[in-house]
Structure formats: structure tokens, C-alpha cells
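Need a sequence for this fold. Nothing fancy.
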């Protein structure tokens, strides 16, 4: 009888131990699967972020190539002296007179001084503003007042007349290249 009780006790212990192993294994497997899922999700998000960064770098490189090509084209066209092109890409004497007369008016002179206060430029920055140079990115440009712009000749959409400090500048929109300057 003692051996029979010992066998039953041993059998109960084995069943309990087997039950514990199964539950531990199940819990361990669930945790392991959860960690695998988390790791896979992290890997997917890292791949996504990396892909976005790569595409952003590629877009930047394409833009940089575009700007470099445009600069090369402008240098080539600048080397070819064409009288017709020069007459279209500079301020005419009449336009210069209209601009100066507009800002000599007392009310418009206040507008000029207000816009100069809103976007001041230093002497060094003012020295950089030369024909065929580029307007630096840190310099803020202010579009001309609509009334004045309507009085001037029409220009292509690739060009823009702006105010920078006490200068009225005709520039290319894409590259910010200065084509002509009227100093006030």
C-alpha cells in the first residue's frame, strides 16, 4: 500500500510538473511572439523612416542639379551678348523715372521707409547686391506695390521686381539672380 500511495503521489507530482511546464512554455511562447511582433514593427518603421530620408535626399540632389544646370545656362546666355535680350531684362530709363517718382511722393516714401524697417539689410549685404550676383537667402525680399508694378512694363513670369533695402531689383525668380538694380 505504501508503494501504491508513493506511485500516486509521484504521479500527481509529475502531472503538476507537466502542467507547470506547459503553462510556462505557453507564457514564454506568447511573450516571445509578442517580442517578435514588436521587433518586426520596429524594423518596418525604421525601414519606412529610412526610405523617407533616402527619398528626401534624392529630391534634394535633383533640385541641386536643377539649380546647377540653370546657373550654367545663365552663364552661357550671359556670355552671348544679345542686344534684344538685354533690352528686355533691364529697367528702361522711363521705368527708372517712374520708380523714383513713385517713391518721391510723400505717402509712398513712408511705405518705402516702413518696408526698409521691416526687412533691414546691413552694409555688407548691400555691397553683395550687384548685377549678375545672386541675392543671398538670408536677405528678405519685398514685392513692389501693385500700383507701381502696374505702371511698369510687363515682364515674363520667370522675372520679378522686388525691393531690397533702398534698392529696386529685377531678378530671376528661380535662382534669385540680379538682372538690374535701381538705387533709391
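Here you go.
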Amino acid at each position: 500500500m505504501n508503494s501504491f500511495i508513493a506511485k500516486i503521489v509521484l504521479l500527481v507530482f509529475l502531472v503538476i510538473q507537466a502542467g507547470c511546464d506547459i503553462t510556462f512554455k505557453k507564457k514564454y511562447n506568447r511573450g516571445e511572439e509578442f517580442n517578435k511582433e514588436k521587433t518586426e514593427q520596429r524594423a518596418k518603421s525604421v525601414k519606412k523612416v529610412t526610405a523617407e530620408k533616402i527619398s528626401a535626399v534624392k529630391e534634394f540632389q535633383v533640385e541641386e542639379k536643377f539649380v546647377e544646370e540653370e546657373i550654367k545656362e545663365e552663364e552661357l546666355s550671359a556670355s552671348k551678348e544679345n542686344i534684344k535680350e538685354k533690352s528686355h531684362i533691364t529697367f528702361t530709363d522711363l521705368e527708372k523715372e517712374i520708380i523714383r517718382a513713385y517713391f518721391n511722393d510723400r505717402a509712398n516714401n513712408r511705405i518705402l521707409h516702413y518696408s526698409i524697417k521691416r526687412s533691414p539689410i546691413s552694409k555688407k549685404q548691400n555691397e553683395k547686391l550687384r548685377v549678375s550676383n545672386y541675392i543671398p537667402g538670408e536677405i528678405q525680399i519685398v514685392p513692389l506695390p501693385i500700383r507701381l508694378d502696374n505702371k511698369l512694363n510687363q515682364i515674363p513670369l520667370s522675372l520679378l521686381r522686388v525691393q531690397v533695402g533702398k534698392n529696386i531689383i529685377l531678378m530671376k525668380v528661380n535662382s534669385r539672380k540680379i538682372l538690374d538694380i535701381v538705387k533709391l
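For context: The CA atoms of residues 159 and 170 lie 7 Å apart.
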